[in-house]
Here is the input.
Amino acid sequence: MEVVYEDNHIIIVSKQSGEIVQGDKTGDRPLSDIVKDYIKEKYQKPGEVFLGVVHRLDRPVSGLVVFARTSKALARLNKMFAQGEVHKTYWAIVGSDKREGMSDETEPTLVTHWLTRNEQQNKSYAHDHEVPGSKKAQLRYRVIGRGDRYLLLEAQLLTGRHHQIRCQLSALGMPIKGDLKYGAPRSNPDGGISLLSRRVEFIHPVSRQPICVEAPLPAGDKLWNLLRS
Here is the structure.
């Protein structure tokens, strides 16, 4: 965990692949508890530390997570996320063999699918048309880097569906590197996937000042920097 922004009302951290944001049935220590301990120690707070979880990232995903430090910020951030007022940008490394004709300077491409979710498999499926029980999913992506075997994509979600980026890119023939669940041929050494919550932008829920922060690229993985350059 790395703190990238903090004030009296919010704290934004960059999580590592494999960390869980909130407690679950695994019993593993969640990121929320780690952040509470950080706040308690840094500010020498007695008693229980308040920390509100306003969104989550999948366990194998790395990057930015926003937490609320006050109840006022929590209520307002929950509303902002629900109304699409928090803008998140993701970077993803995908196989390049299916997209040889794509230019690095390509304009953003809008992709629309209808997703259904299988709870037992914890997996979503993409359809080209609306089917019973499906939800419309839209994202925009563009190529921002290219290597011999991989592309670096920048993606912005226009809707918030279960495993949306992972599912939609897989449906386009571009599974995210390491994402075995959605068609990647092999896993990453750390068991994570090459999907990074890179940037988050919003108006501060209390001060009303614009906030824009970026996550560092995953440490120890030279491919991110190679594709970025």
